[in-house]
Fold these 2 entries.
Entry 1:
Amino acid sequence: MKKTDTKKGAVHAGFSYFLWGLLPIYWKFLDKVNAQEILTNRIFWSFVFMIVVLVITKKWSLFVTTLKGFAENKKQMYFLTIASLLISVNWFVYIWAVNSGHMIEASLGYYINPLISIVLGMIVLKEKLTVAQLVSFLLATIGVVIITVSHGVFPWIAISLALSFGLYGLAKKVIHVESSVGLTLETMVLAPIAAIYMIYLFLHGTNSLFISGWRTDLLLMGAGAVTAIPLLYFAKGAQKIPLSLLGFLQYISPTLTLILGVFVYQEHFSKIQLLSFMFIWAALVIYSLSKTKLFTKRKVKISNEKTAAL
């Protein structure tokens, strides 16, 4: 792979994580709208936006072909439905957390996410844990226990976000489709339910869309674009860079969210929370370094030295 391709890939992937990290600002503008209505608008307008993208990028025929294949392959359709439900749960919890003053815990969820993926890989895919992965998981567990014991409440927001996104990634492993087509299919599964709920709100006069002013209308309809654009940039970038680099870049998003929570929206960040985050950050450093070429080469060198000694 050319260096220019890798550089472009890093820029695209980094930009996607940058946008995700700033996304709480967007949801804060909609803090007067309940999380359920924001979610249904996000799903419905994401589907509409992606249909437009497919037409513009001339991938409509690929979408139709893929859809026919899914209709014939029940296993693929099953996992597509699961993926759609999981990402919807993730979106809902995140929107609710941001607009309810739990941005710090939301960022914690995305710090924990890679480590949850390790456990899911071990349990579901029967992958073996390396020493570095085991140490990372134990350190992260200590961090979660510290928050739980100190607050007396299990950090369900963080765990829900990490678990739902980790399981979403697992479901996506079974679904092999082009990224924009995949996102269109995922939103298509739940778009009818979202539309029915939106109609229900209209009939009962409890909707915010087309009632609360043009600013709210644009923000709710724009939720489709702000959802799809980072995902499209991520897909472009992820194809061109090593997984180890992608692993480092993914921490841009929760770091920005944490900064926003503490310094912009003035959420309380206690010493206990800092201690917990330090354990989790240490776990992520070890996990990320274990994915680099330097760490891999060192393991090979040590293995060769042991073999020579024998």
Entry 2:
Amino acid sequence: MGYDGIVLESWSRWAAYGILNDPDLRNSALQFIKQLGNALHSELDSWRSKQPLQLVYVIGPPHSEKLENQDFGPEDMQSLSGAVDGFSLMTYDYSSPHSPGPNAPMNWIRSALRLVLGTKDNSLLPLEAGKIFLGINFYGYDYSLSGGGGAITGNDYLSVLSKYKPLVQWEEISAEHFILYTDNNQNKHAVFYPSLKSISTRLEAAGSLGTGISIWEIGQGLDYFFDLL
């Protein structure tokens, strides 16, 4: 179909089934990714550039202050570095309806990146950082403060702004904008949704850290988000 390669996401499923806790199964999983990458690299993109096909591998971010068994870490990255062209690091979905808050706090993004690469706060990031695509969300979350909530995309966010006319506020630590509003059933809501400022802050961070970016998902944002890209 003329694609440049494939993007594979499997780590989260392997974690869910306990595969990553077994050293032999984990090694087999890594070998599978290596074989897939090497197979793609042996095939040329004959449709356009005649370049080897590429493999981008999706990895979840650590959610704690240290790596857990199921987390993708520096040893995994070193093992796959030769076979994988890029690692899409999903630095979003930090909060949830059970624990409402910002979607991708900046301090957490930096911490997750350093844990994956195995570096400390005051040390330079290694060259492998150039293979990481830092995840940037173009969607947000609308949380009901009485419980529950879910993802919100651009059109729905604009509808909330138009209907309830809430004050858009900036949260400095997470570097995200949010709004508070009360719906027609008197339920209070908190909405965290990207803005030009929050996206710009993350693009600047990616530039300073030497990473690329990956966006989830292009069609869920507002049109003027593209002005920054």
